[in-house]
User: Fold Aminomethyltransferase from Emiliania huxleyi.
Amino acid sequence: MPAESELRKTPLHAEHLALGAKMGPFGGWDMPIQYPDGIMKSHLFTRAKAGLFDVSHMLGVVVRGADRALPDGSGTLSVLTNEAGGIIDDMIITNAARGPSEKRKRGDHLYMVINAGHEDKDLPHMEAQLSKFDASVETLPNNGILALQGPAAAEVLQALTPVDLSQMPFMSARPMEVAGEQCFVARSGYTGEDGFEIAVPPGGGSQHAVRGLWSTLLEREDVTPVGLGARDSLRLEAGLCLYGERHASSARNDLDDTTSPVEGALAWVIAKRRRAEDGSFCGSDRILAELRDKSRTRARCGFVVDQGAPVREGTALRDESGAEVGIVTSGGFSPCLKKGIGMCYVTPGRNKSGTKLLAEVRGKTQSLTVTKMPFVEQRYYRGP
Assistant:
């Protein structure tokens, strides 16, 4: 872990300190973990109104080339896979429109946002693969990125842009003016709520343009700043994965470079045309075999704690006979459900809803029940 002095800082670092945020390292960045109101209040405020997140530690990437399959202005969740079929990273990819100064708005590149601290592995992999095609990769390290999430998000943002947001369904994106700044806005997020992710270029002023937009949004009584602690509990309730690293004797988070999309319950990201073409993508030998032969050795699923304390990542799971059958990869307290919830990997067959599992927490055996995700209803905007 880098020393505090070596941690990178987003353009909003001073704003977080001024708001009294508790800071901590994440992906090589010094990030707000929580604000004085605490994780619980921030979480529930986001579910009721709108939470504002600084996600400038994530990196925008532009890929230019022909044969983009996504419709113009639309996005989808996808994964980068290695030759062994493991997931290098997960991200939303958008077929982006041209800038607002150009009359022709047809998408001319792919835009994606990769996880914090992943550029050293994602970019070399992408460049190596794209070298086989007439395509190029460009990064946008100077952009600030805000996530405005919650049922009030659309009303809040609509007051700052001339674009009719009712015509932007979930997973659509386009360039637009927001509070006088030219931004790229996607209707997406990491909370299960309706919301927007706003990429803000530096601008031509003496300070980064994202600082002005941050301040403008926080002038609203229905918007509050939210740190990574509540972002994690919100995404867990929504059943969304957190990328991490897996070690020989433990697990840390839900996806890593040993886990396939099939094991991670993300097989739906593999398009039909990809499934029909052996060797058409990195790791296809393993991934297509797991789909065809049902040969995965573990499966991601959700669980609720029947009674007692939350079960944290790295905790071994056993069946009712005492045999070890899996491991917890994400776990915590659900502010909405008021009970422990989590995700785990278990042997195939143990991932069926209603299956009972056992975990030891602080010397006590607790019962868990496998359940479908999301734990809390997702409220994405699907259109007028």
In short: The CA atoms of residues 308 and 361 lie 9 Å apart. The helical segments are 13-18, 38-48, 119-130, 153-158, 209-218, 228-237, 272-275, 284-293. The chain has a mean pLDDT of 93.
